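COURSE: Structural Biology Practicum
ASSIGNMENT: Worksheet 4, Part C
STUDENT ID: 0417
INSTRUCTIONS: Below are two proteins. For each, the amino acid sequence is given first, followed by its structure token string. Answer the questions at the end about the second protein only.

PROTEIN I
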Amino acid sequence: MFTGIIQAVGRIVAVSPTAGGVRIGLDSGGLALDGVRIGDSIAINGVCLTVVGLAAPRLAFDVSRETLACVTGFTAGARVNLEKALRVGDGLDGHIVSGHVDGVGTVTRFDAVGDNRTLAVEVPRELAKYVARKGSVAVDGVSLTVNEVDGCVFEVNLIPHTLETTSFGALAVGMKLNIEVDMLARYAERLSQFKE
């Protein structure tokens, strides 16, 4: 489990094919690696992956074909948002994020509003029903509050701190982003499918 509060921005330095997908090599940037071991989970742009190689500041992860088919952003040179998994006793500053990306959205607007930015993202129709005004959404692993929703497009506000401490400073219209909807919405829908 994660919170969607980004701890560092890293960079993918290598992508190598494997029998089951790819292995990515990652420069962990400023991510504190004390206590990180092989087998630990780290969210990379919102995708929960298992550490399979560790030679600080470098980390390695295997990414399956199934995961690659559902996400975006795993290319050499890409800047990525990083978060270590929650541990018992850690604060929950964002919202509960599983690291299981639901789909990919597309940036439709990225407008300056004073020091802030308004980010508009179009999501696939099958995900749009889970996005609610004033609800939570994880975008490339970042916990955000939805300001507005219009059909399949939602808007969030990005404050200067978020722009400085995530990969979002380099966003542009047309870019693809990993989207994880609020898990409470998914469970509510599933429960509503069963009548007693």
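PROTEIN II
(use this one for the questions)
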Amino acid sequence: MTDADFRTNPDNYCYRHPDRQSFVLCQRCLRTICPECQTQMPVGVICPECLAEQKGAQQSQRAATVTRMPRRRAAQSDKPLVTYGLVIVTSVFYLIGLIPGVGAAVRSALVFYAPLAYTEPWRLVTVTLVHTSIWHIVLNMLALWALGRSLEPLLGRGRFLTLYLLSALGGSVLTALLAPTSVVAGASGAVWGLLGAMFVIGRHIGANVTAIAVLLGLNLLITFLPGSNIAWQAHIGGGLVGALIGFIFARTRAIRQRRTQIWLLVAVAAGLLALLAVPLLVYR
């Protein structure tokens, strides 16, 4: 499918607002709906017409006991709750890390260090919870907040969280391959993954990605500045994996491709974990 085919395909736009692109489908009628038209349900979201039909069916039933879901404004589903949750959790762990006598032990248990990752695999992603300074966490959380507010409503909460975690994993894996003795901390790899995914998805849907390209270039320049003490391996690894996942999301958005999308994501995760065996063979 070419970019032109994607832009002219009505299935890629909200059926009530044809000028708004979205990756989220109504769980009942499977039509594409933008954040304004989504109402969060226990599983997935539904469009206004399906919501009205469901309410009409409930009202027609005169059962003795009726359990009603609380009414929610459609706009509430636009809130990037996963983004806010990641920012809050990461900030809490940073504060815990400041506690004398406790913080050092917590940070030591969560940072990424390749030789320990084989027996303590949680370090592959918990590295995102540890930051070395106030500016380190502030810059990362501002980037996460800014990118998440755009990407999460577009992708949906599950896909967004998957993107974030696999990008963090990609940063850890490339660090293990290229700098196996380095100790790495921070959510930069995951944030770079969000940037990479946004660039690829933006290109695919025909959006202007000049600003994203400039931001990626500036971050890349800062990463390689002499004396920056930045783990560029984590940044590049996260960015490459994020771009790959963004490509998968862009090419498998149809409802009939959902199983394919899941298996491709599983394959990415399995491939990254398999690459962790390389340092054992090369550096032993």
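ANSWER KEY EXCERPT:
Q1: The CA atoms of residues 13 and 24 lie 9 Å apart.
Q2: Confidence is low (pLDDT under 50) at residues 62-76.
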